[in-house]
Amino acid sequence: MRRLIPALLCLLAACAAPPPEQGLRNREAMISSAVVFDPARFAGRWHVAASGVPGCAGAAQDWALDERGAYVLSGIDCSGTRPAHLTGRAVITGPGARFAPDAGFGRAPVWVLWVDQDYRIAVLGTPEGQFGMIVTRELPPRADLMAAAQEVLAFNGYDLRRIGR
């Protein structure tokens, strides 16, 4: 009987379902978006400093605030497995810095997890972990700001090994 128990445990382990896909972040970790957020200051051109998508380093994204309080998106979408054309609108859904895109970003909710007080660098992500990225106004970003952005990603459960420059 004692020999049978380890064999049964091994059999049960082999039958267990694989763990759910976590994307780029541990979904068990808490995640939050920026509460103090100025949509007008966030508007404009951003450059992707880190996303985990090969070929996206330096890609430009334009976030133009329209008269209805949504962003018109253009540039390069770095939320998938390869760079893609970014189009559509992202409606501000709140609270804080949360958006619902009608096209780009895989139509996943986009959250600004953090933006520095001068709106020079920001961290974007999604609760399910489909993507996470650091965007900056100027390339290369200041080293201290980049380090702070990486800390925010890690704090929100992102695997920094998968979100490189």
UniProtKB/TrEMBL annotation:
- Record flagged with keyword Protein biosynthesis: no
Domain of life of the native organism: Bacteria
Signal peptide segment:
1-16
The family database entries (SUPFAM superfamilies) matched by this protein are listed as: Lipocalins (SSF50814)
Name the keywords, alphabetized. Answer: Signal
Could you identify this protein by its name?
A: Lipocalin family protein
Species name: Sedimentimonas flavescens
Q: Taxonomic lineage of this organism? A: Bacteria, Pseudomonadati, Pseudomonadota, Alphaproteobacteria, Rhodobacterales
